[in-house]
What we know:
With 366 residues, the protein is mostly helical. It has helices at 2-20, 25-28, 32-44, 54-62, 81-91, 97-119, 123-132, 137-142, 144-161, 165-174, 188-191, 198-211, 215-225, 230-233, 245-264, 271-289, 295-300, 307-316, 321-345, 358-364.
Amino acid sequence: xxxxxxxxxxxxxxxxxxxxxxxxxxxxxxxxxxxxxxxxxxxxxxxxxxxxxxxxxxxxxxxxxxxxxxxxxxxxxxxxxxxxxxxxxxxxxxxxxxxxxxxxxxxxxxxxxxxxxxxxxxxxxxxxxxxxxxxxxxxxxxxxxxxxxxxxxxxxxxxxxxxxxxxxxxxxxxxxxxxxxxxxxxxxxxxxxxxxxxxxxxxxxxxxxxxxxxxxxxxxxxxxxxxxxxxxxxxxxxxxxxxxxxxxxxxxxxxxxxxxxxxxxxxxxxxxxxxxxxxxxxxxxxxxxxxxxxxxxxxxxxxxxxxxxxxxxxxxxxxxxxxxxxxxxxxxxxxxxxxxxxxxxxxxxxxxxxxxxxxxxxxxxx
Length: 366
């Protein structure tokens, strides 16, 4: 686990210097590229043991078990068409699973780094949140299909903000081709037009409280079309498995949301900032719904990335530098605590296992 700790310390220092030397953000920006390669080497050259579900993907790749299903079975098949075709394409070159992991890591990471670099008020703080958060970097090491789908949806957001609607549609429609749950990203288009206000908050919260007890019944509609996700309907991380991640995330996101609203209540936000605000609010609602069924955790993953943009955005709106620094250190402490929990104390939550590199194995013949 030492390499993970090294990555956390490295990104923390970059976030610190980026805030301290705000007038030299462009100069510090050159460190984004080596940071990307640092992440890529770690994620792209990991062994099949680094990730709870990873061994399944590796075995399927090594044994070339995937086949294009009949049209009638597409919606019931274990893997989506995008994953099947990409798997078969890469398998035509070699049976070495490192190619699969490297390509998926490269696409996933380059999407994340592009969006954070273009849209974050502090790219290194965003990277720190991405690295330490539940359901982001460590999750993508295990579930490479949805990790890639989340990254593609994040690029869809980028192009939607830039009003490049064709590219936005392309990336968002690619998302469910790698993980069916990505269909929820179609909500990005109507949500871009929403500007949150007191009346909308009151209406949505009231509707959510009414719907919450019936979340499982609503989820059965989705399950009727995609029965391969039935197991997620029957489980709740909070009620049945004593995994407290959704509880903590709901509380943390709620605190961030309330504090953020207090900071920006009298400030004029840009269209992009309003969009980030709305998407983070949806992330909070989906996360709260996982208290009833873990199925909605699959949907929440597509909105979780926006906390990486929301927190730096709120921090940048605070004029008092002293308060800004206090909050910065508080955020570092919170995410340090999250990091320690998911890496050292509750590694089973996201199947975080000790890191092992194929490069080291090649060098020492293991």
